[in-house]
Specification:
The chain is α+β, with helices and mostly antiparallel strands. Helices cover 39% and strands 33% of the residues. Strands 2-9-13-11-10-14 form a 6-stranded antiparallel beta barrel. Strands 6-5-3-8 form a 4-stranded antiparallel sheet, with no helix packed on it. Strands 20-1-21 form a 3-stranded mixed sheet, with no helix packed on it. Helix 1 runs antiparallel to helix 2, helix 2 runs antiparallel to helix 3 and helix 4 runs antiparallel to helix 7.
Length: 457
């Protein structure tokens, strides 16, 4: 390799500062002059050649100096600017472990009001949230045609009652009167004939009358008896027990039709089955309601039940009697207190969740909280006094388990920890940290065990 080229290679591979590079350039120039002299090149020519080569070398040196300077600046700051990291103190406090979830409010005592007679809603007499007493009218349906049905049923009932009265009296009056008149006449004739028959018998015994006359009168008396018996049977045949049974059945049927018509008219006015607050009012004026359609719900809301939906993995934390706090987005800052009354008997699907329905009872002073409301619920599952705690977000997980980065002498130190109960924002530390320590909060930087950091206060 040419000695001048060797000098250039030396310059490229060095990381000297500019003053050192210039010195090397002068050395290279002297070497070039000496080489030209030894090879017999004229002095003036040798001088120009050397000057040209020195200019080329200086340009190369400047091009190499820029990236070398940038590399040096990066190396310097890489070693001297430690990343800034925020830390949180390890403190002792009373830690309340809560289970946040959601639920729906419903009354403990309530009844659904449904339609018993289909019809058109002519009037709604109450409003949603209104307090009503038992028996108060809620909705009035149109009674078109029902009054005419009642009048027809009453007419049929009157006719059936009259027919029964006729039967009780023995039958139709005209025919009965005729029979009674004939019976009276025959009884009078029979009595007269019996007297004549007795008189003729006495005369026949004295030979004053013939036996033929006696027999004729006897036959006449027997004929009267037969006629009277026939009329009595005819009178009895006017009304039989079967006729009376049929007449009574017709009366009862007519009366039932009257009661049914009156009931249909009464059902056009729908009443509250119990006293309470009206909610889920479904009836609207002008709407057609079929039998069984919901009109409204009426319930007592001084105390309410909250059906709280707890995810299946969290159900083990829930126990009867635990305090529960209810919040409603419509009234920010307002809470209602109660307790868990019953744990779920089974798991049900709620959208994409598998939940158990935990029943809680809460007081509702002022009846502000309404049935059917979707609410937020916090079940207090545990309370630990003097608990060592850190913010939840300080916890980190790796292949070896759960831990934190603790600040030790300006460096990060990995500490495996054992956790206990937790609140919404903080978690209890059972082992691995001491009170007063500082643990790293989340950051966008990737942290390493033993890394030098600058605490961000």
């Amino acid at each position: 390799m040419h000695p001048l080229v060797s000098q250039v290679v030396l310059l490229r591979n060095s990381s000297l500062q500019e003053s050192s590079l210039v010195s090397i350039a002068h050395i290279a120039r002297d070497n070039a002059v000496r080489i030209a002299h030894n090879q017999g090149i004229p002095g003036q020519v040798r001088w120009y050649v050397v000057q040209i080569k020195i200019g080329v070398v200086k340009k190369l040196l400047w091009l190499l100096a820029i990236p070398l300077a940038a590399l040096g600046w990066w190396a310097y700051h890489r070693n001297h600017d430690a990343p800034q990291v925020a830390f949180a103190k390890v403190i002792r406090e009373t830690l309340v472990s809560t289970l946040p979830t959601n639920g729906k409010v419903e009354p403990i005592e309530w009844q659904a009001v449904r339609v018993e007679q289909a019809g058109l809603v002519s009037k709604v007499t109450v409003q949603e949230g209104q307090t009503v007493s038992q028996g108060a009218p809620l909705v009035i349906l149109s009674d078109t045609g029902l009054q005419a049905d009642l009048e027809a049923a009453e007419a049929r009932a009157a006719q059936a009652q009259a027919d029964l009265a006729t039967i009780d009296a023995g039958g139709k009056q005209l025919e009965l009167t005729t029979i009674e008149s004939d019976l009276a006449r025959l009884r009078v004739e029979k009595e007269h004939d019996q007297k004549e028959y007795a008189s003729l018998r006495r005369l026949a015994e004295k030979q004053a009358a013939s036996m033929l006359e006696v027999d004729e009168m006897k036959n006449k008396v027997e004929a009267a008896d037969m006629a009277i018996s026939a009329l009595e049977k005819r009178r009895a045949a006017l009304v039989t027990q079967a006729d009376k049974t049929v007449a009574l059945a017709r009366v009862r049927d007519a009366q039932a039709a009257v009661e049914l018509a009156r009931s249909h008219i009464a059902q056009t006015v729908i009443h509250a089955p119990i006293g309470g607050v009206v909610y889920e009012l479904a009836a609207r004026p002008g709407a057609w309601l079929n039998v069984g359609d919901l009109v409204a719900n009426v319930g007592q809301i001084d105390r309410l039940r909250v059906r709280v939906y707890v995810d299946e993995p969290e159900l083990g934390r829930v126990a009867e009697g635990q305090p529960v706090s209810i919040a409603w987005d419509a009234l920010p800052g307002r809470t209602w207190q109660g307790s868990v009354q019953r744990k779920p008997a089974n798991i049900v699907a709620l959208g994409s969740r598998q939940v158990g329905e935990v029943l809680c009872t809460i007081e509702n002073p002022g009846r502000v909280l309404l049935p059917g409301t979707n609410v937020d619920a916090h079940i207090r599952t545990a309370t630990v006094n003097d608990a060592l705690s850190i913010p939840k977000e300080c916890l980190r997980r790796d292949a070896n388990g759960v831990g934190v980065f603790e600040l030790r002498g300006g460096k990060l130190a990995w500490r495996a920890v054992r956790t206990g109960v937790s609140s919404v924002t903080r978690v209890q530390i059972l082992d691995g940290l001491a009170e007063g320590g500082e643990v790293a909060l989340p950051t966008e930087l990737t942290l390493y065990d033993g890394e030098v950091v600058t605490p961000q206060r």
